Amino acid sequence: MAVGAVLGALVLSAGVALAQAPAFFRIGTGGTAGTYYPVGGLIANTISATGGGVPGLVATAVSSNGSVANISAVNGGSLESGFSQSDVAYWAYTGTGLFEGKGKIENLRAIATLYPETIHLVATKNSGIKSVADLKGKRVSLDEPGSGTLVDARIVLSAYGLTEKDVKAEYLKPGPAGDRLRDGALDAYFFVGGYPTGAISELATSSGITLVPIGGPEAEKMLADYQFFSKDTVPAGTYKDVPETQTISVNAQWVTSAKQSDDLVYNIVKALWSDNSRTVLDAGHAKGKLITVQNATKGIGIPLHPGAEKFYREKGVLQ
């Protein structure tokens, strides 16, 4: 009996340990100088058990190359989730656009739409660049391969009658691009992300910048051709000495795989929209106030994960 009792206790102990084993949930974000990374860190903290989120969950924000890389990692299983621009997620799911000929990523699912991502075209004050068309012959960074920014930069150039061959193209992350702009080694660079972004704010303060507008009939045609684009405006004073600037935007979305369990995703979404999370998002980043449950299902373009869909239906966000 004593031996049996000991064995029983060991089995019970092992069972409790197994039940309490942490679940790891990584969130692929972007470069550390962008908006994805700090927002991902806030969300990871609020959904983790230590932040009052899902019991037993350990969520972490992982720096990455951005939308395309995150979707590939989610599809391959090296990340449980990631942030993506709405356009890139749509192309991946449908096997069109950037993913033409690469097959559909049919397991891609949405957790939530987060906030608008503004297309910034940042130029030096003395570059003489007043419109996208003025980029011809200039030294321009389009962001690195694998980023959603590169995809959108190509679309914007094309709308104004330019290709990568018409500019002196470089392919840098926003941080290094900003450094080269400050040093006079670059005339302009594209960045897609929520405003204000810290790296551009610092650049505006230290060196002075121009935000180049993306507007006119060329922008109207882009809005007609690509439904994931929306009109956007960077308010005056968002960046030091930069006036109100017309541009366009896409949505930042949080995506995962259909292979993730319904219960896990349901509980993650529930934690994301808790009162505690609301407080952290509002106080933690300028874009946090725009991350709302009312906008969570807008402009998705791909199927919601069943766990997320269940929550949004219960909340009345989805009918």
Automatic annotation (TrEMBL):
Q: Which Pfam families match?
A: NMT1_3
Protein name per its UniProtKB record: Immunogenic protein
Q: Which UniProt keywords apply?
A: Signal
- Signal sequence residues: 1-19
